[in-house]
Amino acid sequence: MRSMAISVTLLGTGSPIPDANRAGPSTLVAAGSARLLVDAGRGVLMRLAGAGAFPVMLDAVLLTHLHSDHITDLNDVITTHWVMSLTGAPLQVYGPPGTQAVVDGVQAMLTADVGYRLAHHDDFAGPPAVEVHELDVRDGSERFRIADVDIVVQPTDHRPVEPTVGYRISHDGRSVAIAGDTVPCAGLDQLCAGVDLYVQTVIRPDLVRLLPNRRIQDIVDYHSSVEQAAQTAARAGVGTLVCTHFVPPLVAGQEEAWRALAAAHFDGAIILAEDLMTVEPAPRG
Ligand SMILES: [Zn+2]
Ligand SMILES: [Zn+2]
């Protein structure tokens, strides 16, 4: 059986709002021989296990930004990678400037635990090893390779949260863009140009405005609406738009209303993500 060049598993499709059925934002990309975890939201390791993977199987963790909903379980990734690793190889973490400080903070939080485990098990080489690669794309894009996979990093626009980045992951002629939280912007257009699969955080401003909570009203101006995500998809000529990180939470029975908002602006395939859904780029004619 031929394996796909790239597959994307939506591990967590929720948002900061707790949801019994949707874990926090995180996405597993299997490309070529690499497994890449994009973001590490609430419940990431439960969903990773559901996808048949453990942290030791990850080639890298890619963070789009440092909002808590995207990094809250990074501590679990770091600890479990360390505890299950037989080689002591460092966990590779990529992210925007500020990522090293977050990892340092997580390590500090884990000081007591690390002490207990080092005292109890004499085969650890040392405390958790994490190698951080900060990606500064203020003056343009950055690209790097992990195994046989090309990764391009573009700046996105989630202000006042900054810096934020999106990842374009390519292998063997197929490519996916994991955009994270962003409004439409030049960096996002470049990230998505011609990709097979575009994964985007989406909100419904019309529904958010109905919520009796002033604080949540603030999110409207720094996320793509469903319509904007579809417009980006159309402008960039992507194959499939994958909507995720729904705000407010996508209620069963309302799927077609969300889909119709996107379909009014984009002719390609539209997928409303659910936890542990795996999507592979369809052949494009
Ligand atoms: Zn965010
Ligand atoms: Zn978010």
Keywords:
14 strands, 7-stranded mixed β-sheet, 285 residues, Metallo-beta-lactamase, Chain A, 10 helices, alpha/beta, binds zinc ion, 28% strand
Quick structural gist:
This protein is of the alpha/beta class and 285 residues long. Helix content is 27%, strand content 28%. It has helices spanning 44-50, 68-71, 74-84, 99-109, 111-120, 186-192, 205-208, 214-217, 226-236, 255-263; strands spanning 6-12, 26-31, 34-38, 60-62, 91-95, 130-134, 142-146, 149-155, 165-171, 174-180, 197-203, 240-247, 269-272, 277-279.
Overview of this protein structure:
By secondary structure, this protein is of the alpha/beta class. It has a single domain, classed as 4-Layer Sandwich (Metallo-beta-lactamase, Chain A), CATH 3.60.15.10. It has helices at 44-50, 68-71, 74-84, 99-109, 111-120, 186-192, 205-208, 214-217, 226-236, 255-263, and strands at 6-12, 26-31, 34-38, 60-62, 91-95, 130-134, 142-146, 149-155, 165-171, 174-180, 197-203, 240-247, 269-272, 277-279. The strands form 2 sheets. A 7-stranded mixed sheet has the order 6-5-4-3-2-1-14, with helices on one face. A hairpin with a 2-residue loop joins strand 9 (165-171) and strand 10. Helix 6 packs across helix 9 (226-236) and helix 9 crosses helix 10 (255-263). The longest helix is centred in the first third of the chain and has 11 residues, at 74-84. The radius of gyration is 18 Å and the shape is globular. The structure holds zinc ion (2 copies). One zinc ion binds next to helix 2.
